């Protein structure tokens, strides 16, 4: 019985040692990650990049370093000056990831916190150099162009540090208080100038209307004068008859006006007729 227990204990110890050894010789690289191998016998970081899956490692001699290669966002704030010496507060959103083929050199030169070491410094450098080429108004009107230039320059700088950028965009852009007051004053002045132009145009149109009306009245008076010279008072009588017809037509179509003839029976009667306005 004692021998059986001894054998079981020995086998358990062997299995435990074997499991520990196997576990020490294996490591996993998850999705979105890559590994580089540090080998003490071959002089440090090996040039190969290890992909996803389960891999063997020699304990004590080799040590895998797991690195994340997925695209990650980074916001880079900066306060810089424009071409016309206006201070601008700008924030840049960068989607970045390391170049997989350069991971051994990247780890050897910068370690695992390479994004904290590289992106803020090159981001501020590029922002200051590009923004200084535009004035404040151009930053607002040419925002897409500014973003594209920042992206091109930032890609060039990031390439030296074995990083690549998937997207670069300006997410925040504000100016100093003095510049905002100047913009408001300029807008008010522009609106006032437009209003004055409208007033001038309106006055000019009214003047032209008065001139046209006066010319028309002058022409009509001249025509009447020439007609009277030719026909005497006949033109006046015709106008009087036309006016009487127009008045009679309006009175006939109105329901609120009643004409009461005078008391006399003949045309020589001195009692005039009455027009009564009868409201409903």
> Helical amount among residues, as a percent range?
40-55%
Poorly predicted runs: 265-269
Task: Give the strand line-up of the largest sheet.
Answer: 3-2-5
Overall geometry comes to rod-shaped
Number of helices: 7
Through-space gap between termini: 131 Å
Compute the gyration radius: what is it?
A: 49 Å
* Overall SS class: alpha+beta
Main beta-sheet strand count, sense and barrel state: 3 strands, antiparallel
Order of helices and strands: HEEEEEEEHHHHEHHEE
Strands, total number: 10
**Rounded average pLDDT:** 80
Taken as a percent bin, the fraction of beta residues is 25-35%
Question: What would you say this structure looks like, in words?
Answer:
- Helix 3 (114-131) packs across helix 5 (143-159).
- The chain is of the alpha+beta class and 280 residues long.
- A 3-stranded antiparallel beta sheet has the order 3-2-5, covered by helices on one side.
- It contains 7 helices and 10 strands.
- The protein has helices at 2-24, 103-110, 114-131, 136-141, 143-159, 177-231, 234-253, and strands spanning 26-29, 33-39, 44-50, 53-56, 62-68, 72-81, 87-98, 163-175, 257-260, 274-277.
Helix/strand layout:
Layout: H1 2-24, E1 26-29, E2 33-39, E3 44-50, E4 53-56, E5 62-68, E6 72-81, E7 87-98, H2 103-110, H3 114-131, H4 136-141, H5 143-159, E8 163-175, H6 177-231, H7 234-253, E9 257-260, E10 274-277
